[in-house]
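For anyone still unconvinced, we reproduce a single protein record, the chain in one-letter code, the fold tokenised, and leave readers to judge:
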Amino acid sequence: MRLALFLVCLAAVYVIGLRGFTALLVALVGSGLISLFLLARQRTEMSMAVDRRMSRLRTRAQARTRAEDAYVDSLHDDDARITRAGR
């Protein structure tokens, strides 16, 4: 969508009469400013999707951390029982 907006701006700048690097620069700035308004909804939806995905990943990482901590704690408990039994 962003690329299409840039190409439309580039075509408009070309019709106006600008050429070369100046045309690219004006089209880039113009499409950037226009996209702030036209693509705001899509940007918000993408941001929310990324946030949901990161929340799921964080939750899974925390669950793995808890499981690993429980496993390590059980190993330490076993070591402590073995040490006490050997005394």
Helices lie at 2-16, 20-38, 40-86. The chain has a mean pLDDT of 90. DSSP finds three helices and no strands in the chain.
